[in-house]
Design goal:
Elements lengths: L1 H19 L5 H7 L1 H5 L3 H8 L9 H8 L4 E7 L2 E28 L2 E27 L5 E6 L2
Antiparallel strand pairs: 1-2, 2-3, 3-4
Helix pairs in contact: 2-5, 4-5
């Protein structure tokens, strides 16, 4: 009985983790929001399924096509309010370093030894950068969008 409970809990945790790591695609977002997808105009439905947006599209279509934004800004231009959604991506930056090190081994009975050496350290850092922006007017319609190549 206890083993069965542990296995079921473990399998539930694995299923939850697998689901939370699943990639978000237009298809998965449409499957989660079928009513929202059905409310879109037919020409926008085709674009959303392909992961594309266009001028005049409502925010709901952009969410289905590209997902929720990573950042949001709002402001006023020429007396009219606007909102800008920012989508980011992580770019790898590869570095390597040549360094020396010294180590001292302190254990239960005092100093156990001293080590010196030289090491080569390849490293990868990920830097966030803007991948795309979408700007909306006061009616929640796309006025412009920019993607980075």
């Amino acid at each position: 009985m206890k083993r069965k409970m542990i296995l079921s809990t473990l399998s539930l945790a694995v299923a939850f983790m697998a689901n939370s790591c699943a990639p978000s695609t237009p298809g998965t977002r449409i499957a989660k929001n079928p009513a929202l997808f059905e409310s879109l105009p037919s020409n926008h439905k085709q674009l959303v399924q392909q992961g594309e947006i266009k001028k005049g599209m409502h925010k709901d279509g952009v969410v289905l096509a590209w997902g929720k934004p990573d950042g949001l800004t709002a402001g006023s231009r020429n007396g009219k309010s606007f909102e800008k959604w920012i989508y980011t991506t992580a770019s790898p930056v590869y570095t390597s370093s040549f360094r020396h090190y010294a180590s001292y081994g302190y254990g239960r009975y005092g100093c156990r030894g001293v080590g010196y050496g030289i090491g080569f350290g390849p490293e990868v850092y990920y830097v966030r950068r803007t991948a795309a922006t979408v700007e909306f007017d006061h009616n929640s319609r796309v006025t412009e969008w920019v993607t980075r190549r």
